């Protein structure tokens, strides 16, 4: 990190002085360094930055070599169309300890071809390649996905199952046993589990069928269009799985889930995203994974994500958090998000060579840390009253360390949650009773549930919806019967006549010609083979298909993903700040030398 800081400062000075290290007198025709000129430049810049000349000389040589190689790669690309991409490898890469490697490739080849080469040269069995926060699709060409000469990409380890079906590289000899053990970590499995939940609305089987609702900051269910609700549940579900993996320090797997969540958030309307802080928290979590993976080469993507996060928080909470104060009555817990935000901003500023800006951000972080780090004695007092560690921590933060106020707040929150549960329980009991009324009247349970949903739970309106639907169906059946009678009058049998009308979309003339051409019979191809049914072209049919395959499979998936749904809506705010303190101390150590020398960058 210090090396990047020094190099960033030197690049600014070189640009300011219009010095090109790859040209004379700093490089000769054989691309060898001009030792005297470089040493003189190192002494001059060392005095400006107050850094030993020997250290500056080493950094200048690194910059010079990088510039020469970049020029060579540009020449190669112009002459041969062979681009060079930079790969940031996993820290525990099996081949060697190098964190980066460069690879030449054409850009009109599929990403899978590049990944096959990475698998061979690096020795990874299963992985994803990330460019600008997006996972490369193995089936698409590199240039179609924004890959260009000098692109920087992350290589993330992933489970074999997580890679399957997404165009990612997997080992050819991966055994089924190892694949099955990684099932619960796959993005696809998590995605499928939340997809099942997103299709449920709580009116099918209230006793045995889990479902999810999207709620506001106080836990009240929100009414949003089904399409947006489905995308939001998928996004939030993948986000929660990613956060669960972050807690287990499995940041590479977490990042895979978080980036997939980001894709689904993009399917939600901007009005919805502007009203909730979920998208901002996700951006923060993605950048936190970047720093945990030491992927500081993702600076451009990280900067933009932190900008989005800050904008989201200010929009949702208010410039002085006044909107949050109006909604929740306090602001202390959300300050943990701002602590992490400013900490990451401090880190990026330092890597960029902006020491003063980094220190300013770090000062804010330390003030927040002092305020948010709970007093051990006060925590003990609250926990002796029967509150959990999480409740005690969040309560003290919300009440700025006042034990009495914190106890009152947590007690009130418990009561509010219990009242909300009671309301929801009564609502579900009423829904169940209304369903019973409709099904006893002869309507199918699924039709009754759909009608109740359209009628917002009003049983009388649901009856009218079902009655109107029955009349429409009866009218359609009557018209079909009349057409069928015409065909029967012509001497055709009922079964072939029905099949012919279906194939002819109800057109009597076409159905007649079809029957005559086939001597009154319809070929067996008119009925699709059973193994091709049902179609999965729509979401509802896909769910039905999986239920036919076996409800146990769905139940296993749903139970698996529900394990990662926190039981408390403020779980994302419950940061212990242990990891944050480690990063605070790391940045302070790196900053101390530069600022002590009197140069802030």
What does this structure look like?
A hairpin with a 2-residue loop joins strand 3 and strand 4. A five-stranded mixed beta sheet has the order 2-1-5-3-4. The chain is built from 25 helices and five strands. The model is unreliable at 160-184 and 524-550 (pLDDT under 50). With 601 residues, the protein is mostly helical. Among the domains are: 1-77, no CATH class; 81-172, Phosphatidylinositol 3-kinase Catalytic Subunit, Chain A, domain 1 (Ubiquitin-like (UB roll), Roll); 187-329 and 550-576, Serine Threonine Protein Phosphatase 5, Tetratricopeptide repeat (Alpha Horseshoe), CATH 1.25.40. Helix 8 runs antiparallel to helix 9, helix 8 (226-247) packs parallel to helix 11 and helix 14 (335-351) runs antiparallel to helix 15.
Overview in brief:
By secondary structure, the chain is mostly helical. Helix content is 62%, strand content 4%.
What characteristics describe this protein?
mainly alpha, Ubiquitin-like (UB roll), Serine Threonine Protein Phosphatase 5, Tetratricopeptide repeat, flat
